[in-house]
């Protein structure tokens, strides 16, 4: 068990990829603090994970500086901090509403900056952010998420130098079946997934567990920093 006696803070851990990372970390022996805005989602996630004595929750909006500071002030230093939080916004650029764009920029990029600013980490610790396929394969209406994901790629490289010896990496998921898709595609989700799976070399869309597997590698491998690990089923090739 690589993560035995280690503590992992997962910002976005109440849903989707973050919850998948939480499950994998628990199986690998870690204790966890799951962070998201909704205390109800956090309670449901913790109950679903079972091992309650190893799972704490902390309800906070990680776009708010005082709440990020409080998270790290009130907890002992973590071994790893994983950030998967997103408030997505998709709109053709000519119909862009700045408030929506700001939610995505703040939930992914500003949160990453605040975590880098305030996280207290054990020696040999790491930060792990989440960029995404839109950085490499942008779609119509996705300019905001493409820009934010691209910025995160540059950010991990800069932080890997500035925060060394803390390691700083990013996951870059392709299409992963999470609650995000239920909101984004609704009833069309199954059909879109089927079409997408036919295009991908691996013949299926991803599951949170696929990304979690990569997260464990990035947390555990002490010789990897400034890296973006693509978990996209070959999406960038098609
Ligand atoms: N799913 C995909 O196909 C896909 C593809 C490429 C990249 N990604 C990236 O992967 C990451 C995870 O996506 P996902 O599909 O797992 O999303 P998800 O299921 O919607 O989960 C998002 C999580 O972020 C939390 N969150 C949102 N805003 C927050 C805030 N301000 N402060 C604290 N927590 C916040 C949410 O909980 P609350 O609502 O309770 O705050 C939730 O736990 C994102 O960065 C996304 O861009 C996903």
Describe it for me?
This protein has a single domain, classed as Rossmann fold. The protein is built from eight helices and seven strands. Strands 3-2-1-4-5-6-7 form a seven-stranded parallel β-sheet, sandwiched between helices. Helix 2 links the parallel strand 2 and strand 3. The site of NADP nicotinamide-adenine-dinucleotide phosphate (NAP) has 30 residues, from helix 1, strand 2, helix 4 and helix 6. InterPro entries: NAD(P)-bd_dom_sf, SDR_DHRS6-like, SDR_fam. It holds the Pfam family adh_short_C2. This is SDR family oxidoreductase. Keywords: Oxidoreductase.
Which class do the helix and strand fractions yield?
alpha/beta
Highest-level CATH class: Alpha Beta
Strand content: 15-25%
**Percent helix among the residues?**
40-55%
Number of DSSP-assigned strands? 7
- The poorly predicted ranges are none
| Mean pLDDT rating | 97
Work out the count of structural domains: 1
| Number of helical regions | 8
**What do we call the CATH homologous superfamily?**
NAD(P)-binding Rossmann-like Domain
CATH architecture: 3-Layer(aba) Sandwich
The gyration radius over C-alpha positions equals 17 Å
Tertiary shape: globular
Largest sheet, if any? Answer: 7 strands, parallel
Order of helices and strands: EHEHEHEHEHEHHHE
- Which fold name fills CATH's third level, the topology? Rossmann fold
